[in-house]
Structure formats: structure tokens, C-alpha cells
């Protein structure tokens, strides 16, 4: 007679070799089954960093490997909590290990609703990866749901509620989602490893030694303050050096225009799009099912671009080629509001040079990117990082770390105006014709990377 | 007035951040233009290790990053040769730096003809990535050709001849292709980094300190013998631990059967395949152009599998799902010839259980994989590794290293029989029906991973 | 006929395997001879971090390995300068490679005057390692002088003037001594490596890509700003986490009291000290020659402590044992001036418990430690770090980096009161006698590591 | 009321930052007390690799850090054994966790009897570090004994018997001492880290995943075979590249001659040696106590050499200077027996050149070094490495690994003849005098590093 599914462990621990955490350890049958589900396997076909791999060629890792990593960090936190701070010893300040399975499932599944190039795709087709994550977990048609529901009735909804932060146990919620959670810790380390930058590297082992459960969630021992500081600085460095990189954003605006163009063409070019992008049709119609969504991946989009690159619509085919062959729009910094008029002028020059400014220029602000920096003073603030002093009282990190206060007090990022590379090519400016003049006048407005 | 294209260097050296070599350094306009060509950019969409990433989830790196790495190692070798062993000093024993550009181009382009899941694809559709590499380099229609031809007339052919090993300068040829060339050195280090195994790691800096040009090609200083040994051992470890991994091969056989099935269905299912795999039609017809080939990538194949997974042919749809959702065939080792009859019996049992053995069993020998181990005694032997003694005489590596002799003298690898996982699932064996018996009889033939 | 000594290079480059820089490369005969000189070899017997190895057991590296490291970074800077920014191309803004040898010699020798546990030793015996460095370089009796003088007459003085910062070429001076020089870059990386902390790690390769000579010295390209920021943060982390560690300082105060005691005992215990510490006599007399100084090393001091640990003076023997057997004084933070009276009271309690407060208590401020943090606004400020913008103008780092501004604006470190561990041992406080009360009253003044 | 000492754990786990294992974790009060004992602290003053740090300048780590490392690996093995293979589950095939404390103590103390430059010192003064280890553990006068004896009566003897391999539990014995024990695993990793070579690096985590207790000791799962192979190859590489390095051995022979000379001088130079090397007198007399031995460390010897370098005996002072200032004897390989006559001739030439051959030449065979390579076929063989197959049967490693068989079957190492560097200095050979001829005749017998 076998144990209930929920308690089934593997006869021999299964491991996955991982370059960041050395090994991912799996002991629960439930977790192994989730990893093998088709909704999770699909994450292998979606890059973690989208267009960033065009700038950092090593960063070709998938959302699958990140999901395993978040699971693994969560597992290690559970182990530490259970060993040192169990609720058996500490009551409600401590960790109740019966929460482990829900935490591990939520960690593994927290990104399961991501699609290809999510950030851009969502803006154009009005999908929402967080809602889809919840849908995948709670819809009876998915393998993920079947597995979770075999644990016990209502379990899928429990896991989903961790992700929507409505789960009653704040320790579980904050493990997966807070200013210093398993998600952020994994992606910083992983993105640093695969880009080959050193900036995202912080001392995970030391952070994990300093993490503590408490009644209100998760805190850090005060003598780990410098380790937490180091994590915050790593995050800052990854933002300014990797996530906000101007070339990756130059590819992102190409992608956005390209998808927009296809979307707009749909009513009159239905047949062509049907033939070249069968799996995207439900999204052009803005009427898609969960199954439609689950068939998308990076390859599906790239294959559409591949086919579109030979289509008769010149804008669609040109943008498709620019994307596939990595021809990002170029950019300069500008000051919003103050320079809005100038932007209009620049767009007119671009138009004069023969480029439709709707598809060949763009405004892009790194502030819009989906990375939240640590700003405890924001009105609708996110979870704070709190340190636990020797006598048990808590203090917010930026109160004791001038370094963090300095980083938290300022906006990071920039506003950029994007345009075709041709506008600033020396070769073209030297033409002794009208176009030459056009290019020259454009270039004269850019100095030291800034609009003037 | 500007320099001839061939001599144009970038005003500021351009670098690409690389996790393996820290930075890839580009100084020549020609190299930058080649990297930006669409044929090279296409390599971003083809994984370096094919189905191995199903086993090692970190190994999602592309042939693009490997190509940059081979270029970089070649560049470093050229620098060392020019600094210490120039032909100006050493005559024909030395390095003639006017060979640098042809070496760099050949290094960067040596894999440009690879397609998606090359090894398997080639067997089924009778393509050949080496011939296609040469075709890309020497066909006037490609961007790569245009760039190379701007260097000077005949230059594309020169570069191609390095790859076909007919180029007259053996130093250049052996940099790119020999037992210890820039290609192998990069892929061992890179595959080790991305899989997260340590085995492939050897001391590149030390190897580069010991490398020497000579009249007949490239040799190593005798006092670097242990560093070369270490490289050979790393190679051995990567083969047995990574490249020959039974699960990756279990995915490969699924892929092979899947493509075979589609190929065979083509005559009668032409319309369906036209609708779902437009870009593969020329290959089903075995009549493809270079442009047809250049439109292929991993995403194109995966998208076809995605669409096939809902097609009416049950074998095609099932195999497509198995591939996308990572359901490898399982395997056991067997002894060819001796156990051939037993294999036939096993296939019959598989058939009894309801699986068509043509598509659900396979024989796979790691000896067929495209990795050559170091075997200097083979009749049609590959380049040897030679060490230069203090008095200038050469000695073949396995003559002085018992460690290498031990590795070189034996065949590495194994022969495996693949079958559906269902055949050995405990759950199914315990059914009290005819099928239960079938499964039991199958399982009884496998002991300790071997066929008995 | 051979070249003048100054131009002699080694027939084959000599390398030293180094865990931090991989290899130290030596090409000049002069440099190899300096490394082999007895004054430089002596640095093998002096630990780089003094008492810090009592806290970080891996940090047992010597000043010898640091000296090689500083040399190597300087060599790499010279290579980059010569390749990209030579004065042949850039005039006085550029690098004049005839300065290379003086720079390399100064780099290798910049710490040659250090003695055992320098910081403490100097305070007690009024030696000065910088003056002694100059003396070693410019005294005809040393091997170092002999070698330098063979380069050309006056060369020793040139090298010394780099170290005293009176050398006319500011590029050479700032390579060896500025806010971001080869010295600091090596010790941060090296100390991080050997302590096993990750904090000191910054991206040396990237910093070296961004470094530029200019007329006034050395600056950094503006687009390397974040790499320089990262270096500053690493430095901050190393100070607060390693260099200012309270336990290392607890060993340092033991050492200081111990040497002080011996010094004070000298007049009446001359014979005993003569027998046990022959090589220290000139220092007790405060009348020492350069040769006397050059015979000192960590082992000489430790051997004296070894012998003193069995001497009849109880304080000297007890402190010697505490030092050898790693029994640091314990400590708490306090507020100078405000709590000076309280300190006196505490010292009285210590005395009541039987410890002479002169030798068993101490005040130690990390501000006195020989590490300068980056504070460009200090009146007598140190060299600033300047960034070069695209148009060539310079800007001071903290003007553009809020992160650095935050770190530069504040004092780092703390003031600590040190006392015997016995004062806070639970075991002793629980004695039901007068001593028990004494210990209790002492302990009651310490809360959360602070004096109250 | 407190627990018996044996069961006392620290209120908060104490950690030591370690560059090799990240953290050393201490939970038992007994272990912390042992670390703080003066006999263990003394190991801080003894280098792990003796004269090897003259060749690899980073390798300045002490026997203290190695001892912590061996303890830590043992602790990890105990954790894995207790978690997965406890005797509660597996009976006598499993691990009995009541053995943990004796294993940890033995691991920490296994090298506590080492003295300065042990290998050489022992040969001259007939000390034996293994016997002294046992003496330290079992002599009531030591702090180590006091601590162990507080655990329970007879406990010191238990710990000692693990080291002498007479302890009845073979699992405990083999953890500390076998072909793949915590000792070897730590020193390979640690020596690789500090020398900066990569050769000693193997995959510790994977090895620890594969290690298993069994009735007869410790074995490895068969599917970890390649990880064990990798460890064996790392060991081989460290031997040939680091431990057998000819320059380190060139310093060792200087040291040996130097100590021999002092020893021989003792009868007639007693007063001088008394004044300069007080702590060595008991050893010159070959009548020393345990306390005499415990006062020795590297600094004591170096300080004696320092004082001897100005003594009137020319051989003693010259050899002392050669040692302190790193002037190794040079060497060439030779064939014992076959070339013994030639060696005699060479020694005569050395004598002609003015060097006493007893003190200025030497024969050194790496086979005499205290490193045992894996040779399962030796008559008096050491513990074998055994692999456990799926059905529980054991197979000796070299039976299944041709790589290991190749390494195990051959003798590694070489025989060298050492002589003064002056004998082969070009400068001296070019003298047009009798000495010139002498040097020339010497040099003519050496070709390609071999005696001819």
C-alpha cells in the first residue's frame, strides 16, 4: 500500500545539474511530475531575457532553468527554516513545515504563464502573464492542475493564491515574492552567470544563513546587513548594466513595431497571416483560449517573422528582417516634456529620409521596464527589507545602510529616442544630395549620446 | 581617403562580453561585418548541443556564441604567434601574420552551415553541413560571400579551403581543425560552462603558452605535456559524461523517428505538411536551395512539431508531443551481433504492447556520434598531437603520456537499445491482464541497465 | 656583445603561477633580478594582512605575492597604454613607454620596507615602512640598490621618487599610488581571494579596458563609470567586513600591549630579552640600522613570543600566550568623549577583577587603521578619481555617481573598547562571590554589543 | 542543568569563512574547544606545503586551514550518511551516528603532530609526526587531551586509534584515511586553490553524492565512476605538476643539508647553537620532550637560519642564506644504478669547483616523497577504491576504468641529481681559466635536462 500522493518521495533523490546552484534537488513525486508537465516543459522554449541575448550572446537561458532555480532556492530556505526556526520550537514566529509543498509548487510555477517576449507581446495583444499563470494552475484542462489537484482538493487554488499574494501565510508569500525573494535571487545570479557579467553575483550562502522567518513574513539578521547591501548593489548594477541596456531596448522597439504592424494588417491581410502565422490568429482576433496561449513560444514567433520577411508588405518584411538579423534601432537620451517638440522635429526628419516614423522611431523609458528597484518610500510601496536586531526589533534596511538609502532615493534609468541606424551613418551624410542634408541635420541634433 | 577594406580596423576595438573568454575582441571591420551578416546571425537560433539541453538544462547556448569563441581563441593564437614566433624571426618555421585575416574568417565561419539538430536532420534529409558551409562562403548570393569578396577576389575560396583543409598553410588549417584546435578548445570549455559540469575545464591559458607554429603545422612545447594531457582527459570526460548521455540520445531517437515519419507521410499528406511546415517542403522533396536551407532553425522545426502534435496521424502527433514535452525513449546497453536476435524478440514484445517498433524502438551507438576521440593509431588517422622537445624534434603525445595512451587505445562509448518508457513502468507490469504479462516479460530481460 | 643591462630581456618569458592574475609575466632581466634579491625574498616571511589571518584563516598570503601582483597589474596597464595611447600618437596626453621600467620597479618595490605586523610595530618602535622602502632602494648596501644602479646612475633615486610621489611623470606616480592604483586593485582582489569573501571582487579586466593616460595622470572613460563604482563598493565592503573586523583588532591590541610590555621591561630585563629576542635589541634601544631592520620577519617576532611565553614576567608571558594561541580581547562599541567617563569606570572594574588595565584593556578606532576610504571632499584630500567624457572633459566620480557620493560622504568604521574575554564569561558571573559581582556589574554595561 | 559536555552544542552554529568549502560549520562545543586549543592553533604557524611555496608563491596556507577542511568534509560525509544511510534503516551496512564525534575529532586532529618542514626534519632528527599526533592526543599534559578526556574516559585513545587505523569501525577509519578520504580530498582542492593551478580541482559535491557506507568501510556508487576517475586524474596531475616540482625539491635539499650541517656541528659548536637556536637544542641532542616538539614552528627554524646566516661556519651560513633567499640547487634527471658512476664523476667536478659535494650536491627521488599514488596491485597494498554495482556487489576501480588502470600501473616521478646553480652559469663557463674548463666539463654532461 502506498502513501498518499502528497507524501510520496522518490526512492532516490533526483538531481538536475545546474551551473548556478550546482544541483537542483528533487525529492517529492509531485515536484518531479510538475517539472515533467507539458506546461512547464514549454518554458524551455522561451528565453528568460528576451531581446537581451542580442546584446549579451551568452544569455540564451530559458525560463525553464530559472523556474528550477527559484524552486531550488525556496527548497534551501525551507530546509534552513525547518532546521533552525521551526514552529515547533518558536510558535507562530517560526516555520511550519507543512507549508513546504505549497511553497515549492508556487516557486516552480510562479512564471509558468510567461509567453514569448512577454513584455512586448502583452502590450500589443493585451495578454497578462500573471493572470495566465493563475489560469494554468487552476484550470482543470492543464496537466499542472491535474497534478496539483491530486495532492488534495483545493490545492491548485492554494498555490495560485501564493502567487496572487492572498495566501494567509506571509512567510510562504514572501519567499516567492518580496524585495529579496527566491525569484529575484535566482534571476540575478542566473542572468549574471549567463551574460558573463560579474555584477549580479552576491553571496547567496551568506544571505541564506541570515534569513529568518517571523510572524509578519521574512526578515534578515542584523549582522547580515552587509550581505543584504551587497545584494542590493548587485541588483542595481544588473539594472543599469544589463536590463536597461540601450541595444536590447533597440531590438525591443523593432519587435514591438513589427508585431503592431502585423496586428494592424490583420483585417486586410487575413489570408496571408493565416498562412504564415496560424498559431497567432487567435491573438490578432484578440480572442484566445488558454490552449492557444500555451502553444506559443519564441520559435513560433521567430518562424512567423521568418515567413513575413518575404511577404509583400514592405514594412512588415523589413522589420522582420531587422529583428531576425539583429539590426536594432539606434538611440539617444532625451528629456521628456522639455524636448517633446524636438522629438517631433526629429521624427519629421526621419520621415523625410523615407522611414515611416510610426514604425521606425520610438520612445522608450527604462522606467517602464518590469524591474522594480528598491524604493521603500514609494507611496504604494512594495515589501520592505527588514533587519532583525539582537533584541528582536525590526529596522528597515535603508534606515541603517546609507549605501542603500543612496540607491533607494533615486530613480534609476533613462528616456531614449530610437531611430534607424541609417540616420547617423557617416556614409549617408556625405552624400552630396538632398538626402545627405537630411542626414546631416539629423546628426547635428545628437551630441555625446544626448538630444540637443 | 580610406584604407582598403581588408586593412580597415575599427576606431575603437569592439568587444562582446563572453562568459567563457571574458571578452571577444574585434578589431577588423571585416570581422564585424561578418558577425552582423544574416547567415551568421542565424546561428543564434540554433542550439549548439541539440537534444543535450533536454538533459543539461543550462546548455541552451547557440552555435553563434561558439562561433565567436572559436574566433577569439584563433585571434589569441595569432597574437601569440606574431609576438613570439613570427616568420620574420623564424622563417618558414614561424608564423606569417598576413595569414591572420583568413584564419580569423575561417574560425568565425567554420560552423556557419549548421542547421537545426544537424546530426539527425542530415541523416534523414541527406544534407551535409560541411558542404553547406562551403556553399555559404562561396555563393555570390550570401552576405558572407559579399563581405569576403570585398576583401579581395578569391578570398571566399581561400577561406573555404581552410575549412576543407586544402589551404596550403598547415598552421592556419590546424588552428581551425586538428586534434587540439580552436574549435575543440572552445566547445569543451563552453559546453562545460553551460552544462555546469566541471569536466570540460582545462587550462586554456597554459595551453596557449605552449602552442608553437612549425613548418608542418602546430605543435606544443614538451614542458606543456601535462597541460595537453589535461585537455585530453577533459575531452574524454565530456564525451562519456555529456555528449554520450543516454537521455539526450533517447530524445534524439524520438526526433529521428518523428522526422522520418513526416518524411514518409509526405507523398500522401502533402497538403497537411504544406500547411504546417511550409519551410520544410523542399527537404521532404529532397530538392532544396541554399536559401531554403538558410531559413531553417530550431524554432522552425519546433513549430512544425507544435502543429503536428494536433494532426490526425497518430504516430506523428504522438512523437511530436513526446519531443516537445521531453518524453525520451528509455534504453539498456546491449552487445551488437551477439544479442541481435534478442533485440528482435524485444521489438516483438514492444509491438505486442501496441507500439510500432519502427517508430518506438531504436538502436543507437555512441560511436556514430560526431565526436572523434583521440586515436592516433587509426588507419585513416586524424592529425596527431605532437610535442616539441628541447632540441626541436617532435614526439607524438601518446608515446610519452601513458595516460593518453590508455585513453587513445580504447573505444569509448556504448550500444543501446531504445524503447518506450511504458515498457518498464511498474504500474503497467502490475496489471492482471495480458498486457501486464507482456510488460513483465519485457522487463525481465533488463538487468542492471543491460540486456540479458 | 650583449645589450646594456637595462634593455636585457629574458630569452624566454618567465612566469609565476598566480591564483589571482593566473600568471605573473616577467620579461626584463632587471625585474627577475629584483624578485630574486634578498630584500624582496624577505617579503615571503611577512604576512600581507597581519592579525587578520586570525579571523580569516585562509588569509595567510605574504607581502611577496602582493608585490608580484602589483607589478603584474602595472605591467598590464603599461601594455594597454603603449598599445592604445602611446605618446607617439597622442603627445603629452599619451604614454611614453620609456617610463615602463621605472614604473615596473616602483610597483614591485613599493612595499619592500614593510616589516612584521607593520602597523603595530611602527607605533611602538617608531619605525616607518615608507621611509625604509626609500632607504632600501637608495642604500648602496642593498641588493636592490645594486641591481637598480646597474640600470643607470640615478635610477634608484628615480624609483624612490615614484614612491614618494615626487617623480615628474604623474602617470607613473598614479599607476602606483592613487585612489584606484595597481596597489589597491591587487590587494582588494588578493585579500578577497585568500579570505574567501566575495566582496573584494570587481571586474579588473573591464577597469583595465577603461583606464586612460592623460596629461595630469590617469583617468577612466565615462562609459566605464559603473565598473569604477563597482570597485568603490568592493573597497567599502572589504573595509567594513574584513579590514575593520573586531576580532582581528582584538588580536592587534594584544600584540600592541605585548610589544609595549617588552619594550618597557628592556632596561631592567636586558639579559632576558637579549637571550630571547636577540634580533629585537636594536629596536628596544631605538637605535637600529637598515640591516637590523631587514632581519625582521613574522617568524622572528613569533619566536620571541614563543620564548617569552615561559618567561617570569607574568604579563609578558600571559600576553605572549594569548597572542600565539589566539585569545583576542573582546570588545564593545562606544561613543568617544560622551562615554569617556564610563570607559574609566569599566577599566576600574577590570582592575578589580585582577587585570592590569594598561595591558588588558584598549581603545581601538578603525579610523586609525591604514586604509583610506574615498573621500574627495577632505581638506587635505587624496587623489580624486576622474572620468573622461566623450568630449575629453573630466568629471570627478562622486559628481556623477550617487552611489559613490553616498559612500564618500560618510565616515566608515567604529570606536571600540577592548577587555579580557573573562569579563563576560557566563561561568564567572555565576560565581557566588565578590568576583561574581564584579563580572556581573561589568556585563551589565554592555547591551547589543554597545556600551551603555 | 546543562547537558554532558559530549552533547553540548553551540547556541548558534559557528562558522569559519573558508575559500575552499565556503564555510566550515561548527556545532559541537568539543570541536570549538579543540580548535581553540594551543596544539591546534600552533598549526597556523606551519605551512601545509613546506618548500612548495618557494615555487608556487600563493601556496602559503597552513596546516591549520587544511585541518579545518578535513573536519568539514568529514562533517558533510556524516550528514549524508545519517540522512540517507543510517544504521537505523540499514543495519550494519549503514552509518551509526553515535560515531560522529569520534570521526570529527580524528579528522580535525589527524595532522596535529606535524612540525615545521616535517618531511625533511623527520629524516634528520628522527621524529615521527604520526607518533607525535598520537602522543598529543593521548598525553594528559596537552589541552587536546584535556578536552577529549572531558568527553568521556578513554575517548582520547579512541580518537588516536582512528588515526592508527585500529579503531573497530572501518567506516570511521576510512573517512579519515583511505585512497579517497577527507584528508586527500581537502588537500587536493586546497593546494590547487592556493597554488592557483586548476589540476587538483575535482567535483567534490558529486563525489559526496556517490559515497556510501558499507560493512567493510566506504565505497562509491558505480554511476559515480567518472567522478572518482576525475579525482584520480586530479591527484595524478597534482603530483607531477606540484608536489614533485623540481625547484621545490631543490629547496628541500638545501634545507636538508643545512639542518644536517647544524646537527653535525653541534658537538663542537654547542655554544653558538645554544645562542642562536635555543629551541632546537633538544633535537640536536636527540632527546626531546613533547613540549619541546610543540614549541617548534616554521618561524623558529627560519629565525635560526636567519641567525646562522651570519655565523662563522661558512657552509652553515651559506646554506642558510641560500634557503632564506631562495637559491635552490639546480638539477637534471638521471638513471639510478646505470649512471651511479657518472654521478660520482659529477660530484668530483663540483668539488673541483670549490663546493663540498656532501653539502652542495644531492640525489632526490620523487618516489621518496610522502605521496602515495593509487596502486592497488602493490604487494602491501593500500586501501582500494571500490565501486558498488546496482546489485550491491563491489568492483575495484581499476578493473572498470582503463584510465585509472593506466595511471595505477605505472610509477610516477623521477630521480634527480642536484648541484649548485653556479655549475651551469654561462658567465662562469666563459672564464678563460681552469675554473672555466671545470664548469664547461660539468655542463657538457647535461642535455635536455638529462644526465648524459
UniProtKB/TrEMBL annotation, chains A, B, C, D:
This is Phosphohydrolase. CDD domains: HDc. One of its GO terms (molecular function) is dGTPase activity. One of its GO terms (biological process) is dGTP catabolic process. Residues 59-197 form the HD/PDEase domain. InterPro entries: dGTPase-like (IPR050135), HD/PDEase_dom (IPR003607), HD_assoc_2 (IPR045509), HD_domain (IPR006674). Gene3D superfamilies: 1.20.1250.30, Hypothetical protein af1432 (1.10.3210.10). SUPFAM superfamilies: HD-domain/PDEase-like (SSF109604).
